[in-house]
Amino acid sequence: MAGLKLNPRELREYIKEYTGREVSACMQCGLCTAVCPVASFMDLHPAALVRAVQVREVDLAKLKSIWVCVSCMTCVDKCPRDVAPGLVVETLRQIALKSGIEPRTYSQLLIDETTPSILLVTYSRKSTG
Amino acid sequence: MMYPVQTLLYYPGCSIKRDFIVVERTSKAVLEALGYKLVEINNWYCCGGFPGVTLSEHSKYVSSLRTLTMAQMQARELGTDTVVTLCPFCYNTLKQGEQLRSIKPDLYTRVASYLRDEFTPYQGGLRVVHFVELLYSKLSDLAKLSEGRLKGIRVAPYYGCMLLRPKSIALDNPDNPEIIERILRPLGAEPVKYPYRTYCCGSFHTLGEPEIVKRNTSKIASSITSSGASITVTPCPLCLYNLRVNTNLRVLHLSEIVAYALNLRDFLDEESFKILSTLRGEI
Ligand code: SF4
Ligand code: SF4
Predict the structure, then answer these.
(1) Are B59 and A120 an interchain contact pair (Cβ–Cβ within 8 Å)?
(2) pLDDT (tens digit per residue) in A13-35
(3) Are residues B204 and B127 in the same domain?
(4) Both B123 and B225 in a single domain?
């Protein structure tokens, strides 16, 4: 997959339109990363991701965090500046999906007859929209 | 019948019907014992998982508004205004769908326009509740009917995410929930508090990145083990599955332990019945 780099200014505007939140309001307190239950599995943890969106180009084809986030909304409720990193992640993931980037193919999924449908629904929806 | 019967519309969702039918069986039995009658929504649709995983802002709400549209027609016929869900994912999605009209009217209008060809779209006025809230509204009945049957059993409630976040749909304080503890006490049980009771289990990563779920469930499990609980209960089928597959904890769905407490033995699986009876014998 070729890179999918987005200009920071356009990206910030897109995020604002989509989530109603201002990434420029982030003060880098790190609370979102502290409460995120999967931050240690991310390449850019929530606070770092918000910082990246504030200041530089982000290559969505390479970014793993957007697939690691489970949309648990812990950071969204906790952020003192109402930046809602989880919704920023969601927006980036949607742009990636719409551009044809897929996290992994179905044949790689660990499915058997005991897999509950809730897992199939949430995982496949997250990976395909 | 002890109480006047209150009719509720029931939204089952995919996992309850396909993988956790015991949850439906025990929840229905419990709610009937508490004076509710559940009528399944005709033509219900998959809730879509949950709003965080969709491709666009409006696609988050299509399935829930469609279900609420169907529910509203039936609610009028039945004379009820309440939709009860058993799965926290369904609760989360339907509740956010229900709030759309008042929170984001423009978006509601757009999503409703997709439905307009077929039906009059959902007009507001339904109450989306979770099983846990109905139990919480009947604490004295729970005490009466159970006669404190779970006396002395130390229970660890595990909440998961979907009943508590985002805070707009939270059915209790998301930072320090107590609602399940308050349901367990009248049954005689001793709920224990432990730090990781609202920590995400790793959710759907079971299918692609199982190490995330292993790590998170093991944190939860050691937190529960050091709390001294002899059994864990959760209201969420996905958390239940993840905890069972990845840890050595004894985990039941909340509806199973409540059904046991109310002496509704016929509705329980043999396995869960044995676990609970053994625990009761040990006390
Ligand atoms: S919690 Fe909010 S303000 Fe703090 S680092 Fe995260 S996004 Fe920035
Ligand atoms: S919503 Fe995503 S980024 Fe935020 S705390 Fe949850 S998993 Fe972490």
Answers:
(1) no
(2) 999 988 889 999 999 999 999 99
(3) no
(4) no
Between residues 47 and 66 of chain A, which touch chain B (CB distance below 8 Å)? Answer: none
> Touching check for A117 and chain B: CB below 8 Å?
yes
* Residue finishing a domain among B87, B103, B131: B131
Residue B1 has pLDDT above 50, yes or no: no
This model's pTM is above 0.90: yes
Residue from A27, A65, A87 whose mutation best tests the ligand 1 pocket (most atoms within 8 A of CB):
A27
User: What DSSP string describes B257-280?
Assistant: HHHHHTT-GGGS-HHHHHHHHHHH
Domain shared by B18 and B119, yes or no: yes
Domain extent, residue A65, equals 5-128
Query: How far apart (Å, rounded) are the C-alpha atoms in residues B103 and B273?
Result: 44
Q: Compute, in degrees rounded to 10, the torsion defined by CA atoms B165, B62, A98, A74.
A: 0
- Pairing assessment for the beta strands A58-59 and A5-6 based on DSSP bridges: antiparallel
Do A116 and B241 touch, CB atoms closer than 8 A? yes
Nearest chain B alpha carbon to A128: B55
